[in-house]
Amino acid sequence: MEVLQDLGRQLVFPIDFESQSYTESISNKALYLITFFSFISGYLTESIKVSGIVFVLGLIVVLVIVLPPYSAYNKHRPQWANSGPTVVEPK
Amino acid sequence: MFSLNQRFQHVSSLALSCSFLVIALIAATSWLQLVKDNVFELESQLSHIRSATRFAKQKRYGGSAVNPTEVSKIRFNADFDFSRLFNWNTKQVFAYVTAEYEGDENPHTMNEITIWDKIIPSRDNATFTLSDIDAKYQLWDLESKITERPLTFKLHWNIQPWFGFLINGETTGSKTIELKKPVDKQKGK
User: Fold this and answer.
1) How many residue pairs from chains A and B have C-beta atoms closer than 8 A?
2) A73 touches chain B (CB under 8 A)
3) Which are the contacts of B145, defined by CB distance < 8 A and separation ≥ 6?
4) In chain A, what residues touch B7 (CB-CB under 8 Å)?
């Protein structure tokens, strides 16, 4: 079980705060657009298949944009204060 | 959206909701398309309905040696065009002919028996001109008599869509006739 917990800690892939709000808003907007376009494309071509293909391809693109922890998503890491005791040097 | 797991769950759950929206839109617009095409008043022609009736003593027809049941075989001509039932959300169409009649002993019960059916899988083969075909299923009743009462023959359709509910309807060309009495001496015994 130790191994699994270690593996879990390795697979977190965090991103910084700015990128978290950015990925959330862009994935929401993209999915609403995909919904609209998949319906319209299917309606115009009169084919359920086209609708499904547009939806799945759009979903894959969103996942590729949002999921991986690109280095651009980790540029604004906050600098946390040291948690250990600070040494105050006497003057 | 902190970890990979959270990002994946957010995107996939929203995508599932969005796919339900697409499905609802497809079902709604295809139903409106059917209404616009006026399919609920489709015309059809049932003609030349004729029958051969015999007395059955077998138990599966509800008959007995003493009191045999009348069993009718029907032949008919049919002429219909169901290509308007096909739009982008139609998987297949089920067409069936029924005979409707009121009970003799219980006049307020309505009976409906399917005598013929057909699965139509595509728009290209949705126009039928059938002449002199045998019904697939024989016609008999719980009561021992089926002849000499008005039977209304109707052609119904049933759309099975890719998304959405089943849609039922019947065509306008119905025909009411009385089947001929069987020429058989067994009944007299």
Assistant:
1) 70
2) no
3) B70, B104
4) 23, 27, 66-67
A61: in domain: yes
**B109 phi and psi, to 5 degrees?**
-95, 135
Output the pTM of the full model. Answer: 0.80
Answer yes or no: is A74 within a domain. no
For residue range A48-63, what is the model confidence (pLDDT) as tens digits? 999 999 999 999 999 9
Using the Cβ of B88 and the Cβ atoms of chain A, whether some distance falls under 8 Å is answered with yes
Q: How far is B117 from chain A (nearest CA, A)?
A: 27
Q: Is the ipTM of this complex over 0.85?
A: no
Determine, for residues A13 and B4 on separate chains, whether the beta-carbon distance falls below 8 Å.
yes
Domain residues for the domain of A63 are 38-67
Chain A residues whose CB is inside 8 A of the B123 CB are none
DSSP one-letter code for B139: B
Inter-residue contact B151 to B177 (CB < 8 Å): yes
**How many domains does chain A divide into?**
1
A51 found inside a domain: yes
Residues of B in contact with A46 (CB under 8 A): 87-88
pLDDT in tens, B44-102: 988 888 888 888 888 888 888 888 888 889 999 999 999 999 999 999 999 999 999 98
Question: Rounded to the nearest 10 degrees, what angle do helices A17-45 and B4-36 cross at?
Answer: 20
